[in-house]
Amino acid sequence: MAPRQKSDRVTIKTVAEDAGVSVSAVSKVLRDAYGVSGPLRERVRASMEKLGYRPHAAARGMRGQTYTLGVILPDIHNPFFTDIMSGVNAALERTQYQTLLGIGQSSLGAQQEVIDAMIDRQMDGIIFIGPRMPPPELDALAAKVPMTIIANHSPTAQAYDTVNNDDFLGATLVVQHLVHAGYRNIAMLSLDLPPIEQLQVTTQRELGYRQAMEDAGLRQYIKVVMSEQTPRAIQAAARQLLRSRGRPEAIFCWTDFVALEVLSVAHELGMKVPGDLGVVGYDNTTYCDLAQNALTSIDQSGQVLGLQSARLLIERIKGRTTAEHFVVTPRLVARNSSQPVAR
Fold first, then answer.
1. Distance CA 325, CA 309 (A)
2. Are 146 and 276 in contact (CB under 8 A)?
3. Among 22, 40, 118, 133, fewest CB within 10 Å belongs to which?
4. Cβ partners under 8 Å of residue 124, min gap 6
C-alpha cells in the first residue's frame, strides 16, 4: 500500500483498508453497535488513531447520532460546577461521547437560546444544571432531546431523569451543627430568583433551614436574605446583614461561592471567624480546605452528581424510557469557620 500523502482525505474506507476489515465493520465500531468483538474494536480504533481519522460530525448526525452531549451551566463563577464536570468526564472516559458547554446565565431567555443552539447542532442529549424553566417547558424540551437535570427536584417527572442532593436534609444538618456548636441567631443567605414551586435547590434548602430552626426552638431568629449570584451583590447583602441591629451569630450560605464572599466581608469589617461569626457553606469545593478559609460545608458529592447524570443520559439515548431520579445523601464537613466559641 503506497504511503498516504498528508493532503489525502482519510475516509472510513481508508480505515477499513488499514485495519483489514470491511467498511461495515468500521461503521459498527463508530456506532458502538452491539455484537462487535473487543479485538475488532481495538484494531479499528488503532487504525483510526494511526491515520488521524475523525468522523464528520454533520454526517454522523444525518445517520442519527453525533456522540456529542450538551452541558448547560447556570454560570461559570461557581467552583462546584468543576466537580460536576469532573464526574461527567469520568463517566464518558471510555465512550465516544464528547461534551460541549453552554452558559445559561441563570436566565430563562439565555437558557432557551443555548438549548436551541444545541438542538440545532444535533446533540444527542443534554445535561441541564439548575434550569429556570417550569415543568411543562422541561417536558416539552425532553420530548425533543434526551435530557438529565441536575439541581431540580422533580421526583414525579417522567420525560427526563434527575440527579440531586437531598437539599432539605443538607440544610437541616447545617442548622443542627451550628446549634450544637452554641450558635442561636442563625441567618441564611440565599439566591434571589423567582421561585418555581418547590423544585429549586435553594427553595429546598430554605425549607430545611426553617424547619430545623423551628425544631430547635429558634423561630424568632429565622431570617432568609436574598442576593443575586454576583460578587458585588453578595458582598452588599453580607455587609448589610453584618451591620444590622441584632446581627446574626452565624450565617448559612446556600453555596460555597457565597460563603467565601461572606468570609471576605467579615474580614473587611474586622470580624473574627469563628469568634464574632460562624459561617457554613454548601458544596464542599476545594477552596474550603485552604487554611485562610477553613470553611465548614455540606458535601453533596459533585463528582457523583456528574457521573450519574452522564450515566442516566446515555441510558436515555440508548432507549430507556422509564424515568430515574437519583438522590445523593449529603454529609457535613466541619472546619474552623463554625467551631464552638465561648459566650
1. 10
2. no
3. 22
4. 65, 66, 67, 68, 69, 97, 145, 146, 317
Give CA–CA dist 78/103, Å, rounded. Answer: 12
* Nearest C-alpha neighbor of 161 from the set 321, 26, 297: 321
Contact between residue 49 and residue 19 where contact means Cβ atoms under 8 Å apart: no
Q: What is d(CA 263, CA 203) in angstroms, rounded to the nearest whole number?
A: 23
The three cell numbers of residue 274 are 469563628
Residue range 167-301+332-338 forms a domain whose CATH class is: alpha beta
Per residue in 182-223, pLDDT (tens digit) is 999 999 999 887 666 667 899 999 999 999 999 999 999 999
Q: Which CATH class is domain 68-165+302-327?
A: alpha beta
Domain 12-55 has CATH 1.10.260.40: yes
CA 37 centroid distance within chain: 35
* 274 preceded by a cis bond (ω within 30 of 0): yes
Q: Where are the domain boundaries for CATH 1.10.260.40 in the chain?
A: 12-55
Using one digit for the tens of pLDDT, what is the confidence trace for 268-316?
Answer: 999 999 999 999 999 999 999 999 999 999 999 999 999 999 999 999 9
